[in-house]
Amino acid sequence: MAEDVARTTATGDRPTGVEQRRHLSGVVVVGLDGSAADEAVTDWAVAEAERAGRPVRLMHAVEPGYQLTPWDAVLGEMPSLSERLRAGGRAVVAAAAERVAGSHPSLTVDQCVEWGSPAAALVGLSQHASWLVLGAPQRHGLERVLLGSVALAATSHAHCPVAVVPAGRPVRVPRRVVVGVDGSTGSARAARLALATAARTGGTVTCVVAWSVEVIDGVVVTEPGSEHWAEVEARYARLVRDVVDPIAADHPDVPVDVVVRHGSASRTVVEVAAERDADLVVVGSRGRGGFAGLLLGSVSRGVVERAGTVVAVAH
Asked: What is the pTM of this model?
């Protein structure tokens, strides 16, 4: 149940409830948890909203994890625990909204506190959103980042693109965009998102495809630089072009190049992103057919956990 919804605009117009949610269709939803990571998440979302001409919804979910009762209020003449939790949630979104208003006074900003599962709330709000923006844990040395349960569920089940913003990293305009392409419908969605983003920022797109085992004339291709190796790489480059060229035709001003490498798909995307100093990495989801959103694909999840920059998952 939505506990609080407040909208701030330059005109002072304040629709509420279902009417407001329809009014804000296409909103950029920002998941806040009250940590220091909220600033980077909010900054990335606000910048994307301004580029696309979208409103922003700042959301915090309160999940107590056990049944609340009013006994603490009755016996102690204190506000109930539920009220204190609600007040804490309102404070989180209000602080973020005040910060956004100070630097982006013309942006439409909605404040939303939800009661219940954060993942369920985020997925629900994503149905009418253009983006869902979440935070990720900070990396320490070579330590692998484990995608948190809320971020994993929201990234897997969302109805719109999801941006995962790592903590402790400066937020940059996504001008160098790297996208994983493997010929699937999910990678086509990723390419479409990557090209559209680069078109708004005046950026470039690097399409990455990886291959592992190929057999030609009954022989496993293992020799880099050989005729068979070149044949395999040319075939994979054509596969990427078959997916990307029709999409790129709608964005003729965006430079697009293709990188084909032998190795693990997720590791290759992460390596190329590091080499290109990518501002944004885009990967596809498995789609919503069959067991819709049951699992985030292993390649996409591997990129989200290892990239060290903003990763967008296209749905």
From this structure: 0.85
